[in-house]
Amino acid sequence: FSVLNSQNQSDQVGAVALSVATRAAIFVDTLAPAGGFTPTELGAFADRFDQAIHPQVTSVFGSASDLDANGRIVLLFTPAVNRLTPRNASGFIGGFFYGNDLLPTREGSNAGEVFYALVPDPTGIHSSARSKAQVAGVVPAILAHEFQHMVHFNERILVRGAVSQEALWLSEALAQMAEEVVARAYDGVDTFASDTLFRDGTRVRARRYLQGPDTVSVVVTT
Asked: What is the mean pLDDT of the chain?
């Protein structure tokens, strides 16, 4: 895979498919630190995508493309994502979707549907240390969020032929709404509080704004 780095260039990453489900194919970077997710744990991410994220997001926002004709969305766990966050930063990048991958003629495009997520890195080899529990706690909501971006890119750019991407504030609002859409699918039916897993991020962002509306913008500009 080609993976975007902090210099707006591409790192070349080798990876192995460790869990393949109906809608998701999960790959792990061959250079990921030891002690990462087991195949069973990766399968749980794939199950969430198959059973809740994919059907809920597509029912509200539209269809994903299938440029690589494999019928699945690829989730790549790679320390290349960890390296996007400087050590000791106050926050961190948990994952992303890159529209360039859906434009096959562009340099660095993977010509297919790919999400990128950070890996557990408990000793801090690639950036500040991230435990397995910490990564497991953020990846599901990131999947819902980034899948909405992927669906929206397909519907806006590939299907309807828009000449530019969505305004950033609206793009992020739609993706954050996707987190809530998936949370509602779990309301009252999941003993592991999955609804909270998908809802916590939007609660935190709302709280930050309400606590400091003079310093936190509703419209993302930087």
From this structure: 93
